[in-house]
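Worked example 2:
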Amino acid sequence: MSSGLLIALSVLLPVAGAFVVLALGKWPNAREAVTLITGGGTLWLVSGLLPYLREGARPRLDILEVMPGVQLAFEVEPLGLLFALVASFLWIVTTIYAIGYMRGHEEENQTRFYFFFAIAIAGAIGVAFSANLFTLFAFYEVLTLCTFPLVTHHQTDEARRAGRVYLGVLLTTSIAFQLLAIIWTWQLAGTVEFTQGGILAGTASAGVLGAILVLFVFGVGKAAVMPFHRWLPAAMVAPTPVSALLHAVAVVKAGVFTILKVSVYVFGLDLLGALAATAWLAWAAAATIILGSLIAFTKDNLKARLAYSTISQLSYIVLGALLANRWGVIGGGMHIAMHAFGKITLFFAAGAILVAAHEKDISRMHGLGRTMPITFGAFFIGALSIIGLPPAGGSWSKWFLGMGTLEAGQVGLLAVLMVSSLLGLYYLLEVPVKAFFFKPPEDAHRPEGIHEAPTASLIAMIVTAAATIGLFAYPDLAYELMSMVVPGGAP
């Protein structure tokens, strides 16, 4: 199979699967089987592009010329392939989880959920394989629009309000800031193609280029850099599998991926490091890291605490890009994968607790680990990755980010990373500690014996927890791909 066909099918197969799912809505088993088969096929197609990159190729597929010099086109480079591999693999696992959760929680509109989830994966892969800023922007907006019905899944007043915030923040930032930055880039450089080393060097003054960088960083609302973060906690009203999609699989990762890609292929690290705006934007990301962690402290609702944890962790990746050096970009890119597996495990656990024990608040989870040991054991593993402790994969990405701060001579930013990890020790490990070592509340009505989540959800949680540990033992693929993005000396 040619590389062009692999690219086309990687984007089109999830769309085709979505419409088959819609047609099979009356037969849940068949509907979910098609979702799993489509997910497996998509992962196989995306994986088939890896040998081309290892041979030094950059597979490309041109679709159409929108205007002179601007094409709707796909090109596979290492950062995009890493994102696509993570999204396609976690689609399969999240589907397995959703089968248990959606049925166990007796959710309505399950066919609509699987349909839009598949479309969202197609949008994420379109973002990942974008050859230029135009294609990226088009699929970025597709991803926003097709996840709106997932955020408003319950169709309650609260869900509709959350949906308005979701669309309002993401569309406003992308149209008012990101689109302006893209048009400005095209006007200066005469192209919007992603190019190794960047396209903006020498095209304008440092002040103008700094302004464009600011527009990109704050225009990518999905990266949730404060103050454009409100959409993410608001969206927690959605079912837990949707939260997993938003936080780990597609949406927020599309945001931080965009900032990394723009940093490397539009500005280039040399130019990025020379701009004064880069330094204060790095501190804006650092402020988001600390503030997100501090707000997480105040949240008793588990999903809300995880939401603010995500806001904090996303800015690790933004910071990695803005360090404008090899280790920062490698650490940021690897954190896309490491955070995805760790955070999805945490959200899977939160959903399992809701389905099995009907508890949302951490203050009411005392002693629950005695009846749900697998769930809280998985939560513990996911928490280790988010904190950055062995034997979980997040320890690698945070190590490289730390190296990036030292290479940049930014000891203050290294201190920010360390303080954030210390805060994470409390607000994340508090959950399993209370679940395993504290007595249940007097008014708690806990089932006798083991009472875990539905089997399908439990299997998915075990897979992602095991993968989180596996990424610590075998980080090679993520490191290999990111090393292709910013070639340099041996570690």
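The chain has two domains: 1-270, 275-491. The beta strands are 60-67, 70-75.
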